Amino acid sequence: MQGEEGKLESAIARAASDLVRSRHAIALTGAGISTESGIPDFRGPDGVWTKDPEAERRAYRSYETFLVDPRAYWEERLSDTAPFSIIFREVEKARPNQGHLALAELEEMSILKGVITQNVDGLHCKAGSRNILEYHGCSFKLRCAACGTRFEREDYDLEEMKKRGELPPRCKRCGGVVKSDTVSFGEPIPSDVARQSREESLKCDLMLICGTSAVVYPFAELPRMVGQRRAGGVATVIEVNAEPTPLTQEGVSDYIIQGLTGEILPLIVGEVKRRMPE
Ligand code: APR
């Protein structure tokens, strides 16, 4: 009879051999991989939405506000008390944790071909991952709502523009209205990222899903694309998460390794190294 320790060890060993055997493995991540960097998730026990359902209801209105009154959208985003400003200050000082670094190392070893993340905190990039698709955009970028051109946040002096009454910022390329690159509820996923994410999900033969409750669409569609192909045994879906998710319950994932990404992912990397040819 295997104890908890034994079960974890064999699951880590199974994930390592699945990864070494894969031809095109990708990782999908959510807010859970950043909680060990001090950034709260949304729906976990200490999640932002769990603790403040009103904040979630406000977040659902953000895109509507942008469409109707982009100046009001920016006034709200730049106010010191807005959740975006509070989270943004947390995100700015956050550092990648062992979970991010483990995924970057798997990419360095050419085991992982890339990461599709829902997170807007830029921590995969800071950890050294290179092939990153930011499905919900990035807090450190702005994007033109008309032509889709992206800018670094510091390309605009937003505080100065707010003081001078010059909000909303305008696109340097087409003059369209510029918003945060982060994708709000109800806002379409930028077409470039949506297309590349779908292509990667259809191409991969292993999907490593880390730290997401997998309840937000269309992102949650991606694992289901792979799950459908799995019927022929051509793809493996592995979850690393603190708790089971709908992917676990619906049998979309082959197995879940339950626990903290910051602890489990480095163990998987260690096992992969032991299996790699010298
Ligand atoms: N290790 C593993 N799992 C963790 C950890 C951790 N250290 N910390 C939290 N988790 C798990 C939580 O138990 C939860 O199942 O990660 C999951 C995080 O789920 P959510 O908080 O719903 O975050 P996410 O899935 O990324 O949310 C998707 O919702 O509000 C929108 O745009 C926002 O991108 C976000 C989207």
Describe the structure in your own words.
- The structure is a single chain.
- With 278 residues, the protein is α/β, with parallel strands linked by helices.
- It has two domains: 1-38 and 95-136 and 189-278, Rossmann fold, CATH 3.40.50.1220; 40-93 and 140-181, SIR2/SIRT2 'Small Domain'.
- 44% of the residues lie in helices and 14% in strands.
- The chain has twelve helices and nine strands.
- The strands form two sheets. It has a six-stranded parallel β-sheet with strand order 3-2-1-7-8-9, sandwiched between helices. It has a three-stranded antiparallel β-sheet with strand order 5-4-6, with no helix packed on it.
- β8, α11 (246-249) and β9 (255-258) form a beta-alpha-beta unit.
- The model has no long low-confidence stretch (mean pLDDT 94).
- The structure holds adenosine-5-diphosphoribose.
Provide keyphrases for this structure:
single chain, binds adenosine-5-diphosphoribose, Rossmann fold, six-stranded parallel sheet, three-stranded antiparallel sheet, 12 helices, SIR2/SIRT2 'Small Domain', 2 domains, alpha/beta, 9 strands, 278 residues, 14% strand
In a few lines, what is going on in this structure?
This protein has 278 residues and is α/β, with parallel strands linked by helices.
List the domain count as a whole number.
Answer: 2
* CATH class descriptor name of the largest domain: Alpha Beta
Shape: elongated
CATH topology of the largest domain: Rossmann fold
Q: Quick one: CATH superfamily of the largest domain?
A: TPP-binding domain
Q: Largest sheet, if any? A: 6 strands, parallel
Flag low-confidence runs: none
Looking at the overall shape, the CATH architecture of the largest domain is: 3-Layer(aba) Sandwich
Say which molecules are bound, naming each kind only once: adenosine-5-diphosphoribose
Radius of gyration: 20 Å
Number of helices: 12
Q: What gap, in angstroms, lies between the N and C termini?
A: 34 Å
Quantity of strands, as a count: 9
Strand order of the largest sheet: 3-2-1-7-8-9
